[in-house]
Amino acid sequence: MKLKEGSFLWYLYLDKLYCLLSVRNVKILVEYFHLLDVHRNNTLNDVLFYHFLHHVTNWKRPQIMIVFNMLDWNAMGEIGFDQFYMLVCILLAQQNHLEEQFIFRHSRPVFELLDLDGQLRIGPENFHMYNFLFNISKQELKELYHDFDITGD
Q1: Which residues are registered as beta bridge partners of 21?
Q2: d(CA 76, CA 74)
Q3: Which residues contact 111 (CB under 8 A, 6 or more apart)?
Q4: Which is the most buried residue in 48, 74, 130, 153, by most CB within 10 A?
Q5: Which InterPro entries does the entry mention (predicted)?
Q6: Three-state secondary structure readout of the chain
Q7: Is residue 81 a contact partner of residue 32, using CB atoms and an 8 Å limit?
Q8: What is the pLDDT of residues 1-59, one digit of tens each?
Q9: Does residue 99 contact residue 134 with C-beta atoms inside 8 Å?
Q10: What's the start-to-end Cα distance of the chain, in Å?
Q11: In CATH, what number does 14-148 get?
C-alpha cells in the first residue's frame, strides 16, 4: 500500500515508538473526519469511506470494502471516529514500515479487528485476507503460527 503523495495523511506524523498520533494531529484528524462526514451524524458510510481511501491510497475497491467491513464492528453500515483513527494509524504505520511495532503496541485492538467471528481465535485465513493491510508475508505467518499456536491446530 502506498499513501498518495500530497494527500492529507501524507503530512501527519506517527510516533515511531508508540505508533500513535500527537494530540495536535488527532485534533486535525477530528476536523478532517467532520469534513468527510457530510451527513453530520459522526460516522462515515461505505460510500464516503470508499472515496476517502480511494483518494489517499492506491487500494482497489475490493480491498477498501474488506477494510470497511472489518472496521464496521457492529454491522451498522458505518464507522465512527474511533475506527477511522485506528485505520489512519495503521496506514501511517504501514507507510513508515512500522507494521510489526504497531501490532506489538496495539495487539489487543488488532486481535479484535482480525477476530471476525468473535471466537477469540485468529486463523491463517484472517491474516491472509488482511495481508495487504499489515504486510505479513507467508513465511512470517508460518513463523508466527509456529511460535504462538498453543492448541496445535
Answers
A1: 14
A2: 6
A3: 122
A4: 130
A5: EF-hand-dom_pair, EFCAB9
A6: CCECCCCHHHHCCECCCCCCECHHHHHHHHHHHHHHCCCCCCCEEHHHHHHHHHHHECCCHHHHHHHHHHHCCCCCCEECHHHHHHHHHHHHHHHCCCHHHHHHHCHHHHHHHHCCCCCCCCCHHHHHHCHHHHCCCHHHHHHHHHHHCCCCC
A7: no
A8: 788 988 989 899 999 999 999 999 999 999 999 999 999 999 999 999 999 999 999 99
A9: yes
A10: 31
A11: 1.10.238
The answer, yes or no, to whether residue 150 has pLDDT greater than 60, is: no
Q: pLDDT band at 135, cuts 50/70/90?
A: confident
Q: 51-91 pLDDT, tens per residue?
A: 999 999 999 999 999 999 989 977 899 999 999 999 999 99
User: In the chain, where are the structural domains located?
Assistant: 14-148
